[in-house]
Design goal:
Low-confidence stretches: 1-6, 173-198
Helix content: under 10%
Distance between the termini: 57 Å
Order of helices and strands: EEEEEEEEEEEEEEEEEEEEEE
Number of helices: 0
Strand order of the largest sheet: 4-7-10-13-16-19-22
Structural class: mainly beta
Shape: globular
Largest sheet: 7 strands, parallel
Number of strands: 22
Radius of gyration: 16 Å
């Protein structure tokens, strides 16, 4: 007789130790996988996830007070944020790296990256997509956001855009970036450092 592990979706805190996959409920407390539009995924210990587990994940928000990396090379394994208000919250001194296909809801405001916090999208090794669906994504933050090598920032349509407001530093790429910014307008307001390293 074969056994399979399934778990209902719920807000949960990562404890790890069982595997490095998001989809394994034993990695979460309570033992349920965050994968619903109202779920909150919380990280308060250093973590390096190697995949979502072969499934797309949708959550409301992700909060971390420490260094966390979430990686997945499969284009079907997307991490989608349903909340339009502060879907990502990174504490000062912490770094969150999302090295996978990442999707935000339209008209999203990201304000949970304070001074001293770092949010990375992608890596030098993988070609991922940061998808900003039709509608403005506003970044109100004093922290640093890095869109790393080989990533595509895709607005999904001509009415998309990124509004940078509030002292954020945004870095596009690094040595031999090779990434693209498509279907987007970028509007800059209020003390923004916008950099592209060659």
């Amino acid at each position: 007789m074969g056994w399979s592990l399934t778990a209902k979706a719920a807000s949960a805190t990562w404890i790890g130790g069982t595997s490095t996959l998001w989809s394994n409920s034993a990695n979460w407390s309570p033992a349920a996988v965050p994968n619903a539009t109202t779920d909150v995924a919380t990280f308060d210990t250093v973590a390096s996830l190697t995949g979502l587990g072969g499934i797309p994940i949708t959550i409301a928000t992700l909060t971390t007070s420490t260094n966390v990396t979430i990686a997945d090379t499969a284009s079907a394994d997307t991490l989608t944020f349903n909340s339009t208000t502060d879907p990502i919250n990174v504490s000062a001194g912490a770094t969150l790296t999302l090295n996978l296909y990442t999707v935000f809801a339209a008209a999203t405001t990201i304000g949970g990256i304070p001074s001293g916090a770092i949010l990375n999208f992608g890596s030098a090794a993988n070609t991922n997509t940061l998808l900003l669906p039709n509608g403005l994504v506003t970044i109100n933050t004093g922290g640093t956001i890095n869109v790393l090598a080989k990533d595509t920032v895709d607005g999904g349509g001509s009415s998309s855009g990124i509004l940078l407001n509030g002292g954020v530093t945004v870095n596009l790429g690094g040595p031999a970036w090779g990434g693209t910014v498509t279907n987007n307008t970028i509007e800059v307001e209020n003390r923004i450092n916008f950099e592209h390293s060659d």
